[in-house]
Design a protein that fits this description.
Diphtheria Toxin, domain 1; 7 strands; about 160 residues
């Protein structure tokens, strides 16, 4: 287990600005299932943009990029383990559970605060999932800024 302190980034709907550290709203995710808490973020703003790309549609409500600070988190490091960065949704749909959940279950059982893992589509980028949004573990340290993905921005007039 490693100790991690540093900045992380999340992309949220503007309507979520009053609760920027709320855990995932979906009952299931890469490293959580019903009844578990998970707060997903990235170790870079670019990583946050890559992580959310699958979920962004033209016409979505406005979004913001929110920076936060993690302090002394005890993390299991799964970076470089491609089986932790698979498309978990298809497997869950077929089998009823995701094999990635075993990683978070093991980390939770070991007393970890979360996991570090590689981006599926950009393994050079890293993401983090925290099992708690306790202020002792993570807090907002910067103002949110408007975010529009480059692939949805209109071309510049020349």
């Amino acid at each position: 287990m490693l100790k991690f302190s540093g900045p992380v980034w999340r992309i949220l709907f503007l309507s979520q600005i009053d609760a920027p550290l709320a855990p995932a709203r979906a009952p299931e995710g890469r490293f959580h299932y019903r009844g578990q808490t998970a707060l997903y973020a990235s170790l870079s703003a670019e990583g946050a943009s890559v992580a959310i790309r699958r979920y962004v549609l033209a016409g979505d409500p406005p979004r913001v990029l929110q920076q936060a600070q993690v302090t002394k988190a005890r993390l299991v490091d799964l970076r470089g383990q491609s089986d932790a960065s698979i498309v978990w949704q298809d497997i869950r749909d077929k089998q009823g559970s995701s094999p990635t959940w075993s990683y978070s279950d093991s980390a939770r059982d070991a007393g970890a605060d979360g996991l570090l893992y590689s981006s599926r589509s950009r393994p050079d980028l890293s993401h983090i999932v925290l099992f708690s949004s306790s202020p002792a573990l993570i807090h907002v340290d910067a103002r949110a800024i408007p975010w529009v993905p480059m692939y949805l921005q209109p071309p510049l007039d020349r």
